[in-house]
């Protein structure tokens, strides 16, 4: 979905960030669609909360991966 966000001339740093954001979005998607999520208002709140935390989650994923470089 986001593979071409930075285009063909993406730097290595941009590619790393994109992978971290994609991972955060997958985690967020699973969180919102989990069987523990209720429909209606609860799902809207879950989605709003997740959307506010995607960047922080991507930062955490990227930090964890950089520890192994």
Task: Walk me through what this model shows.
The chain is an all-alpha fold and 69 residues long. It is built from 2 helices and no strands. It has helices at 12-33, 41-66. The two termini are 26 Å apart.
Using only C-alpha atoms, the radius of gyration works out to 14 Å
Q: Considering DSSP H and I runs of 4 or more, what fraction of the residues is helical?
A: 55-70%
Shape: globular
What is the CA–CA distance across the termini? Answer: 26 Å
Average the pLDDT over all residues and give the rounded result: 80
Structural class: mainly alpha
Strand content: under 5%
Order of helices and strands: HH
User: Which spans have pLDDT < 50 for at least 5 consecutive residues?
Assistant: none
* Count of separate DSSP helical elements: 2
Question: Which oligomeric state applies?
Answer: single chain
- Main sheet summary: none
Short description:
By secondary structure, the protein is mainly α.
């Amino acid at each position: 979905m986001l593979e071409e966000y930075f285009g063909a001339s993406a730097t290595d740093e941009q590619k790393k960030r994109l992978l971290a954001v994609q991972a955060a979005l997958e985690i967020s998607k699973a969180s919102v669609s989990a069987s523990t999520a209720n429909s209606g208002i609860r799902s809207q709140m879950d989605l709003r909360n997740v959307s506010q935390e995607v960047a922080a989650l991507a930062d955490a994923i990227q930090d964890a991966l950089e520890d192994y470089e």
